[in-house]
Amino acid sequence: MLHVLDHPLAAHVITHLRDKTTKPATFRTLAYQISLLLAIEATRNLAVEDKLIETPLEPMHGRVLAHSPLVVVPILRAGLGMVQPFLDIFPDVSVGYIGLERDHATAVARSYYCKLPPLAGNTVFLVDPMLATGGSAAQALTVAKENGATAPRLVCIVASPTGVAEIERHHPGTEIYVAALDRELNARKYILPGLGDFGDRLYGT
Ligand code: URA
Hints:
By secondary structure, the protein is an alpha/beta fold. The chain has 6 helices and 15 strands. The chain has helices spanning 8-18, 24-42, 84-89, 135-146, 161-170, 198-203, and strands spanning 2-4, 48-54, 59-65, 70-76, 93-95, 97-102, 109-115, 123-127, 130-131, 153-155, 158-159, 176-178, 180-181, 184-185, 191-192. Strand 14 and strand 15 (191-192) form a beta hairpin. It binds uracil. Uracil binds next to helix 6. This is Uracil phosphoribosyltransferase. Residues 4-205 form the Phosphoribosyltransferase domain. Belongs to the UPRTase family.
């Protein structure tokens, strides 16, 4: 199931992310902002429970997050640029890492690193800014499931129709959250119009 952010601030931020004149420092700030909006959207249905508190004026029943630890798993390296908002807004979150490298000639993902906290019973978010061919994300979803995740969610900034279809083919029913669904992939498997190489733009490489 695909969820595309629909918010004026998201449109504003994604446009500046796409702009090739945006410098790495600004790009990192914008990546934080769009990831924060995505984190809020992707956690819309987290369980809450009643909590009796007292305001300075009277007692009331408020609602707080039910105990449901979150796990955020960036796909290295570009996914690192999406982690901080999850750490900043959620009280109980741990971080795992999956390292997948795209072979530039074949565009096939190769795993070179995997370190995960317990996933079973936890709400798991895989974060990967660019859902291009979908190969890395599909592989990361498989790894997460092999390690106990029941319904890992995928959070991306820009997706291609090919990438979304690939996830739906290999992992039907996956909740996918994106800020933009773009037109297509080019011959080198970059997203069009896209924003270029996210990792390079994030780290100035
Ligand atoms: N990875 C990127 O960083 N950009 C793309 O367009 C596709 C994959």
